[in-house]
UniProtKB/TrEMBL annotation:
Entry annotated with the keyword Endoplasmic reticulum: no
Biased composition (Basic and acidic residues): 471-481
Residue ranges annotated for the Oxidoreductase molybdopterin-binding domain, each copy included: 233-378
Protein's name according to its UniProt entry: Molybdopterin-dependent oxidoreductase
Keyword Transmembrane attributed: yes
Moybdenum cofactor oxidoreductase dimerisation domain: residues covered: 399-477
Residues passing through the membrane, by range: 12-33, 73-94, 101-118
Annotated keywords: Membrane, Transmembrane, Transmembrane helix
Gene3D superfamilies, A to Z: 2.60.40.650, Oxidoreductase, molybdopterin-binding domain
Location of the region described as Disordered in the Swiss-Prot/TrEMBL record: 471-495
Length: 495
């Protein structure tokens, strides 16, 4: 029994040291790479996301939302810490029987090699391997000094506490440095043209936004973000290119400079996520600097016999949709008068008017022309959200004032436009037209709506519905997001 307890006391500090080394390695990697694909956790998280069954992905999107991706990132982080800790634990064992530094350096080299294998970046390997060497060498050195001094202390416990403190310091430093680096990464994209019509259109959107407290303006304050990976790619504009390939007369490739040399224009476009809830907030509008795709197709000699296109991205995403739709698409390289942000596809992304956000591919690298239909990324996972968006009126503002109630939101129907929004304050028995914001220029833009009424002093249900530009009313039947996007009338109970 005493022998067992002795081994346990020895093993527990060693495990603590190994875990501390794992934390330090992850922090070191983040410090040198920031929130980029060079961060050792990023490719692991990406691999986990792709390996998940379609049912798990659907649950994460429709139930967990953004929390699902955060849990995926946490799982990948714990996995990386565990792998590094296993290597470090072997290093601790070796260090007890070998000359100084052998165990520490050996473990650091192995961790660095694994990081290089996963990320393909030498700097990431250095950032992950070096902290392991530092942590294990410090433990080894402390233990040997204690032994040489002949003091009556438990070197294992003290060294474990010391390394935990060191790992904490590594973590704080890594997060601070990595966050700064992540903020600065994203490619050297030039800003969008600063011309008068861009500023005029932004001012117009501000002036036409309804003056309702809590209602997001016509140009969104914060644009929603949905990606297949927790860490976005950082694509340098100078090395970026986009190719038109597949069944074409000749393949053509365009650089970022080529793109910016083309005739462009600013235009308002609204995007909506196919996986959002009916009254969710993954629907936003921006003013994008765009060039049309049709001339690029003509230059490549894309014939009408082709059926589809597969758009591919730098992060490994791919989505297929009809070629006829692609001819109406744009490539955007600016957003709200500035360079396209990394989070929204810098240096260039696809915009497909009137269609769900999933086919508006970010970090665009290729348009492959196809003769037969194939499944895209989300279709392989059971989704079918390529087609035109569903009409929706969202109810996001409910302000109970003295004697009255103000309700407001946004309405969207893709390229069909919005002609009318109706509000019912008695659960759908009677309806009244809501006030609409003036239409912004553009073929694919939302509108705001607002309605104020006297409070009936009893609990009641407010229901809202929209009509598209053709006068077609939004369907009442409620449908979940999976597999083709949510639909139905939005309602809220007012106490």
């Amino acid at each position: 029994m005493d022998s067992y307890r002795t081994r346990a006391r020895t093993a527990l500090p060693a495990v603590g040291v190994a875990l501390a080394a794992g934390v330090a390695a992850v922090a070191g990697s983040y410090a040198v790479a920031g929130s980029t694909t060079g961060y050792v956790v990023a490719p692991v998280e990406s691999g986990l996301s792709r390996a998940m069954p379609g049912a798990v992905v659907t649950f994460a999107i429709t139930v967990l939302g953004s929390l699902g991706q955060q849990l995926s990132l946490l799982t990948a982080t714990l996995l990386v810490v565990g792998v590094v800790a296993s290597v470090a634990l072997a290093g601790v064992v070796v260090a007890r029987r070998a000359p100084p530094l052998v165990g520490a350096v050996g473990a650091g080299v192995v961790v660095g090699a694994l990081a290089l294998l996963v990320t393909g970046e030498p700097l990431a390997a250095l950032g992950a391997g070096t902290p392991v060497v530092v942590v294990l060498d410090a433990v080894d050195l402390f233990g040997r000094r204690v032994a040489d001094a002949g003091t009556r202390v438990d070197p294992g416990r003290r060294s474990a506490l010391g390394t935990l403190a060191a790992a904490f310091a590594f973590g704080v430093l890594g997060i601070d440095v990595g966050s700064r680096l992540g903020d600065e990464s994203g490619g050297a994209a030039a800003p969008a043209p600063q011309r008068a019509d861009t500023q005029r259109l932004l001012a117009q959107a501000s002036e036409q936004s309804l003056d309702v407290e809590g209602l997001e303006p016509l140009v969104s304050d914060s644009f929603y973000q949905v990606d297949i990976n927790a860490v976005d790619p950082s694509v340098d504009a100078d090395s970026w290119s986009m190719a038109v390939t597949g069944n074409v007369d000749r393949e053509v490739t365009y650089s970022y400079d080529d793109l910016r040399a083309m005739e462009s224009r600013p235009e308002f476009v609204t995007l909506r996520c196919v996986g959002e809830s009916l009254n969710g907030k993954k629907m936003d509008t921006a003013l994008w600097e765009t060039v049309p795709v049709a001339p690029l197709l003509d230059e490549a000699g894309v014939g009408d016999a082709n059926c589809c296109v597969m758009a591919r991205a730098a992060d490994g995403f791919y989505e297929e949709f009809p070629l006829s739709v692609l001819r109406t698409a744009r490539i955007a390289y600016g957003m709200n008068g500035e360079a396209l942000p990394r989070a929204h596809g810098a240096p260039a992304r696809l915009l497909v008017p009137g269609h769900w956000g999933e086919i508006n591919v970010k970090w665009l690298t290729e348009l492959e022309i196809l003769t037969e239909e194939v499944d895209g990324y989300w279709e392989e996972r059971g989704w079918h959200g390529t087609g035109p968006v569903n009409t929706v009126a969202k109810l996001h503002v409910l302000d109970q004032r003295e004697g009255s109630v103000v309700v407001a939101g946004h309405a969207y129907a893709g390229t069909r436009g919005i002609s009318r929004v109706e509000v019912s304050t008695d659960g759908g028995e009677t309806w009244t037209d809501a006030e609409l914001s003036e239409e912004l220029p553009g073929e694919d833009v939302w509108r705001q709506w607002a309605y104020e009424y006297d409070h009936p002093d009893t609990e009641h249900e407010v229901v809202v519905r929209a009509y598209d530009g053709d006068g077609t009313r939004q369907p009442q039947e409620e449908r979940e997001a999976f597999p083709s996007g949510p639909s139905g009338w939005v309602s809220r109970t007012v106490s």
